[in-house]
Design brief:
By secondary structure, this protein is of the alpha/beta class. Helix content is about 40%, strand content about 10%. The protein contains 12 helices and 11 strands. The chain binds pyridoxal-5'-phosphate (PLP).
């Protein structure tokens, strides 16, 4: 079987050495030494500052919104459900603006139109879908014009740069997920990268029940800390992450070459590198999409319709947001297997099946 995804297993010997340190120190959570080490190493690896580890990518979004005082947001309809469910759970008033048909990311022109019609939002929440960077300059122009804060859901964008700059350095904050299915993981986990140190400081209190540095209580907080055992997994996996990303990106390129002209593929940001986080393909014809999925299943190859439905259609929304592009893409997108343990032959086996059907 060719699995859709296979999480990275940490080297047990290395991991154990870290876990022994934790047991010896009896410091299991609450910003311990491994938390500090992982923070510093991730900041250096990713080329960012003000990185706050948190217990998952969902809480990362919620805490980022709280820290930036975002109580209403305009967001993308094409993302994993957590991008919007996390906001709704927090009572954030939400509207959708459509995506660009080429990149599948929030479209700056549609965003500008939406904000001209209704400027009543504190911020913009956009996802770098599949690790493909949004038009970060276009979104910055629109956000500046309308005086909006920007949060990027960068759950898929570990190790992605735009030019020389980490994609995480755009916007007021970027959130990461370190779920086991991601390129880099801590089993469960995540991080927020803040542009401003003051927002980082506020968020650090918020993820520790709102307790301030002097022990007094500030704004009500939550518990979203990453514990030392999970930091140990991160430190272990980080040693080999360059090789992992290189391999995944190489497989992504082979997929792209093999499938070019046979299926539609999202257009990648011209100045960005690849991390091989996902392998999305788009097949407009529903019958053909089903035929491909059936043929893959018959050949023991996993795939997933991902992301669907378009989120503007979820949760019994009262309003219609007119996100036709997102609805179209969500109707025809399929993610193919892509992970560190696949070989070039596995990729060719998948693309051969697709070519035979189409
Ligand atoms: C785009 C996106 N945002 C947010 C999340 C939520 O992350 P987590 O599973 O770490 O809570 C995911 C997770 O899988 C995701 O794909």
């Amino acid at each position: 079987m060719i699995a859709l995804n296979k999480p990275l297993p940490p080297d047990l010997e290395k991991l154990n050495a870290y876990l022994v340190q934790v047991n010896d120190s009896s410091w299991y959570t609450n910003f311990g030494p491994l938390h500090e080490q992982l923070t510093k190493r991730l900041e250096a690896y990713l080329g960012v500052q003000n990185l706050l580890l948190v217990s998952n990518g969902t809480l990362a979004l919620q805490v980022a919104c709280k820290a930036l005082n975002i109580n209403s947001a305009i967001t993308t309809p094409f993302s994993f459900v957590a991008t919007t469910s996390s906001l709704l759970w927090q009572g954030i008033d939400m509207a959708f603006s459509d995506i660009d048909m080429n990149s599948y990311n929030l479209c700056p022109i549609a965003l500008d139109d939406a904000l001209q019609q209704n400027n009543n939002y504190d911020g913009v929440v956009a996802t770098h879908v599949y690790g493909n960077p949004c038009d970060v300059n276009g979104i910055a122009d629109v956000a500046n014009k309308h005086n909006k804060k920007v949060i990027y859901d960068a759950a898929h964008a570990f190790g992605i740069n735009v030019g020389e700059q980490s994609v995480l350095n755009f916007g007021d904050a970027s959130t990461l997920s370190f779920h086991a299915t991601k390129v880099f993981h801590t089993v469960e986990g995540g991080a927020i990268v803040f542009k401003h140190r003051t927002d980082f400081d506020k968020a650090k209190q918020l993820i520790n029940f709102g307790i301030q540095a002097d022990g007094s209580l500030g704004e009500p907080g939550i518990n979203a800390k990453l514990n030392e055992y999970q930091c140990a997994v991160g430190l272990t996996l980080l040693d080999d992450i360059d090789g992992v990303i290189k391999h995944r990106a190489a497989l992504f390129k082979i997929y792209t070459n093999e499938l070019n002209g046979i299926v539609e593929l999202p257009q990648w940001h011209a100045q960005a590198n690849f991390n091989g986080a996902y392998m999305p393909i788009f097949i407009a014809c529903v019958q053909k999409q089903q035929d491909v999925m059936q043929a893959l299943a018959k050949n023991n190859i996993q795939c997933r319709r991902y992301f669907t439905p378009s989120l503007d259609l979820a949760y019994d929304q009262q309003k219609s947001f007119g996100c036709a592009n997102s609805q179209k893409i969500a109707g025809g997108v399929i993610c193919l297997p892509l992970h560190n343990f696949m070989s070039v032959n596995d990729v060719i086996a998948v693309t051969d099946v697709i070519k035979e059907v189409l």
